[in-house]
Amino acid sequence: MVAARITVNGKETPIAPAAPHTTVLDFLRERGLTGTKEGCAEGECGACSVLVARPGVNSPTDWVAVNACLVPAAALDGQEVITSEGLATPGEAGAPAALHPVQEEVAVRGGSQCGYCTPGFICSMASEYYRPDRCAHPDPAAGAGADPEHGPNGFDLHALSGNLCRCTGYRPIRDAAFAVGTPAEDDPLARRREQSPPAPAATAYAQGDSEFLRPGTLADALRLLRERPDAVVVAGSTDWGVEVNIRSRRAPCVVAVDRLPELTQLRVGSDRVEIGAALTLTEIERRLDGSVPLLAELFPQFASRLIRNSATLGGNLGTGSPIGDSPPVLLALEASLVLADADGEREVPLADYFTGYRQSVRRPGELIRAVRIPLPLSPVTAFHKIAKRRFDDISSVAVAFALDIEDGIVRKARIGLGGVAATPIRALATEAALEGKPWEAQTVEAAALVLQAQGTPMDDHRASAGYRSAMLGQSLLKMYAQTTEEVSS
Questions:
Q1: C-alpha–C-alpha distance, residues 115 and 173, integer Å
Q2: Using an 8 Å Cβ cutoff, are 33 and 13 in contact?
Q3: How far from 484 is each of 293, 441, 471, 476, CA to CA, in Å?
């Protein structure tokens, strides 16, 4: 097998002798590319942002910003990476390098002070700069004031939601983001989008007593998991990367499934939507393009764009966290999971999947292959995330609603809850209190009292049990207030 290597700023670089758990951040810094910084080591600050060539949604290749502090270097075997140093154009005959347009705008608009966070901002901004479907507003003057989170140049500020700055302040950074133009025709990274990215390499990388393996097919992965019950399975590594960095966890064997073709499909049929478990949340969001409104409401509130560029539904469900943002939404959508092992597949309703705190019915050697959402969708939906910050925060309570309301009567109600029990749960008693009743204030107020008593919320540093219970009831009242006009019209 070919030695593991990464193409960094156009130059092939062997991964050896890095350990299999070595992150892309440490790999780059050890090779002198110190623009990539470590701030938090858990994907919160974005100081470590780099660009990776990935299969595109609207072009053959997208330049995707990811947290280098979370991704193992071995996971990028055969892939292409651009750091902040690689964005500038090298000067000829010893002349200084020419700044990239994003770097130029940040410099002239005062978007950098101490400079520690700046390279991460630059890479995240460059990812948005090269987004193929970014379009300038037809009327720049109107676009500048119509939406404070999108610039007249089409720049989406959510692209920077995973980048933190402690000293500059965000106004000059925002000004720089809203000032960048479109890539020039001869821009090499823009032209690179028209070619396919490297195919994921089948990887067997070992150093010492640990190894990183990337099987070439799902069948190979399932056979490997049967042979290696001690293996840790990773996709985007947004959870495992934190364990490695903060808790110093190590695994004798890590198996990557993030780019397996069988796990990265998205199919919309007449009776269901099937989402591959290893598709990133960003890929799902852009491919669905709002066709599942409840998911469309979830995605902007799920961590940051940097995390969504790597995180997957399979990983979020596989961890079994009671505060994961996707389970309440998928419970409301009546989703089921396709579980696969070396012997075959089985389909399990998500409502039956969780069995205890971070426990599930998934057997050793089984993978989540896909998430299935039945069609048609309920027309009245809402997702409420109660957290200390508007974006990029862990939820104290998450509530998802999906209702069928016909002639003023609630024909079907599905409500998913997170953060109020040892597992994500369906609010079955509240659903029963709504179904068959008129969608009116009296019904909703009575059902809100029922919802307030659902689950077994606890006191912790995020919220008290009493607050969580109160927010459940308020969530239904808020949903009624938001949707009454829509339903009656």
A1: 12
A2: no
A3: 18, 9, 20, 12
E-strand ranges in 194-234 read 203-207, 210-214, 232-234
Tell me how far apart the alpha carbons of residues 375 and 268 are, in angstroms, rounded to a whole number: 9
Cα Dmax for the chain: 78
Classify residue 296 by its DSSP letter. H
Q: Please tell me the distance from the alpha carbon of residue 304 to that of residue 392, in angstroms, as a whole number.
A: 5
Q: For residue range 417-441, what is the model confidence (pLDDT) as tens digits?
A: 999 999 999 999 999 999 999 999 9
Element (H, E) at 347: strand 344-349
Indicate whether 487 pLDDT > 80.
no
> What's the pLDDT at 447?
98
Q: pLDDT tens digits, residue range 318-358?
A: 999 988 899 999 999 999 999 999 999 999 999 999 999 99
Q: In angstroms, rounded to a whole number, what is the distance separating the alpha carbons of residues 276 and 263?
A: 5
3-state secondary structure of 73: helix
Lateral strand order in the sheet of 367-374: 266-268, 272-276, 367-374, 336-341, 344-349
Residue type, 125: M
Candidates 38, 301, 44; CA nearest to 162 is: 44
List pLDDT tens digits, range 183-208: 999 999 999 999 999 988 899 999 99
Residue 486 has pLDDT above 70, yes or no: no
Are 481 and 384 in contact, with CB atoms under 8 Å apart? no
Q: Which contiguous run of DSSP H or E holds residue 78? A: none
Output the six-digit token pair for 451. 């919802």
239, 43 Cβ separation under 8 angstroms = no
Q: What phi, psi does 7 have (nearest 5°)?
A: -90, 110
**Helix axis angle, 101-108 to 170-179, nearest 10°:** 140
**Tokens 């659903």 belong to residue:** 431
Residues with Cβ within 8 Å of 322's Cβ and at least 6 positions away in sequence, in order, are 357, 358, 418, 419, 421, 422, 423, 424
**Which residue(s) pair with 205 in the sheet?**
212
Specify the amino acid at residue 10.
G
Between CA 308 and CA 237 the distance in angstroms is 11
Give the chain's radius of gyration (CA, Å). Answer: 23
Over residues 159-185, the pLDDT tens digits come to 999 999 989 889 999 999 999 999 999
